[in-house]
Amino acid sequence: MSLSMKFPLNPNGESNAGFDSYTDVQLSEAIKQNMKMLFLTIKGEYVMDPQFGIGLYGYLFENDVTISIDALKDEAFKQISTYMPYVDIESLDVILDSDYQTMKVRVTFYYNGKTIPDLFEVEVS
Fold first, then answer.
1. Which of 45, 65, 106, 120 has the lowest CB atom count within 10 Å?
2. Burial track 79-88 (b if 16+ CB lie within 10 A, e otherwise)
3. Is residue 117 within 8 Å of residue 98, measured between CB atoms?
4. Nearest residue to 53 (alpha-carbon basis) of 18, 78, 25, 86
5. 109 and 118 in contact (C-beta within 8 Å)?
6. Model pLDDT, residue 123
7. What is the DSSP track for 57-121?
């Protein structure tokens, strides 16, 4: 998956509707948007590539006894390395809250040779 544009586009801006090169902040936001799509898309939902997606909501509604955090992490690492090879993962944490039926995924990552990691979080409930 190539890096997508960050929405919303600004057609009246000087940056040619968002198609010019990214600044560091824009690049970070575009990567986070791509990760969000990757985590929330269910496998088979994206017609052009049925292997794309992690389907985070599916993990949320598994029984507490059967949910496998390790399986979720393995799938996330596999998907990110396949579809976002420009990202280096430092850590990936999954936080489950059974009382409130929420799941949060926190990814600390590097990109573009940066020495300071960036942080992506997505929460489903």
1. 65
2. bbeebbeebe
3. no
4. 78
5. yes
6. 92
7. HHHHTS-TTT--HHHHHHHHHHHHHHH-TTEEEEEEEEEEETTTTEEEEEEEEEETT-SS-EEEE
